[in-house]
Amino acid sequence: MHIVLLQATLPAANLPFLFAAFTVAWVAFFAYAFFVSRRQQELRKEIAELRRTLEQQEPEDAS
Question: Whole-model pTM above 0.70?
Fold first, then answer.
Protein backbone atom coordinates (compact mmCIF):
# COMPACT_ATOMS: atom_id res chain seq x y z
CA MET A 1 0.00 0.00 0.00
CA HIS A 2 1.44 3.34 -1.09
CA ILE A 3 0.88 6.45 0.91
CA VAL A 4 1.10 9.67 -1.01
CA LEU A 5 1.83 12.72 1.03
CA LEU A 6 0.56 15.99 -0.29
CA GLN A 7 3.05 18.79 -0.38
CA ALA A 8 2.17 21.18 2.37
CA THR A 9 2.49 24.78 1.30
CA LEU A 10 2.24 27.87 3.41
CA PRO A 11 -0.87 29.98 2.84
CA ALA A 12 1.40 32.96 2.20
CA ALA A 13 2.69 31.20 -0.92
CA ASN A 14 -0.76 31.64 -2.49
CA LEU A 15 -0.92 35.40 -1.94
CA PRO A 16 0.28 36.33 -5.45
CA PHE A 17 -2.53 34.24 -6.96
CA LEU A 18 -5.07 35.81 -4.62
CA PHE A 19 -3.81 39.29 -5.51
CA ALA A 20 -4.01 38.46 -9.23
CA ALA A 21 -7.58 37.20 -8.87
CA PHE A 22 -8.68 40.33 -7.00
CA THR A 23 -6.94 42.54 -9.56
CA VAL A 24 -8.69 40.83 -12.46
CA ALA A 25 -12.04 41.07 -10.69
CA TRP A 26 -11.65 44.81 -9.95
CA VAL A 27 -10.46 45.58 -13.48
CA ALA A 28 -13.47 43.72 -14.88
CA PHE A 29 -15.81 45.61 -12.54
CA PHE A 30 -14.42 49.03 -13.46
CA ALA A 31 -14.49 48.21 -17.17
CA TYR A 32 -18.14 47.15 -16.86
CA ALA A 33 -19.00 50.30 -14.88
CA PHE A 34 -17.25 52.46 -17.49
CA PHE A 35 -19.14 50.91 -20.40
CA VAL A 36 -22.46 51.10 -18.56
CA SER A 37 -21.93 54.79 -17.78
CA ARG A 38 -21.02 55.53 -21.41
CA ARG A 39 -24.15 53.74 -22.61
CA GLN A 40 -26.25 55.68 -20.09
CA GLN A 41 -24.85 58.98 -21.40
CA GLU A 42 -25.66 57.95 -24.97
CA LEU A 43 -29.21 57.04 -23.97
CA ARG A 44 -29.69 60.39 -22.19
CA LYS A 45 -28.53 62.24 -25.31
CA GLU A 46 -30.89 60.18 -27.46
CA ILE A 47 -33.82 60.87 -25.13
CA ALA A 48 -33.07 64.61 -25.20
CA GLU A 49 -32.95 64.52 -29.00
CA LEU A 50 -36.27 62.66 -29.18
CA ARG A 51 -37.86 65.20 -26.83
CA ARG A 52 -36.64 68.07 -29.01
CA THR A 53 -38.04 66.33 -32.08
CA LEU A 54 -41.42 65.84 -30.38
CA GLU A 55 -41.49 69.46 -29.19
CA GLN A 56 -40.82 70.65 -32.74
CA GLN A 57 -43.60 68.46 -34.12
CA GLU A 58 -46.22 69.56 -31.55
CA PRO A 59 -46.63 73.13 -32.91
CA GLU A 60 -47.01 71.74 -36.44
CA ASP A 61 -49.72 69.32 -35.25
CA ALA A 62 -51.60 72.11 -33.40
CA SER A 63 -51.93 74.37 -36.47
Answer: no
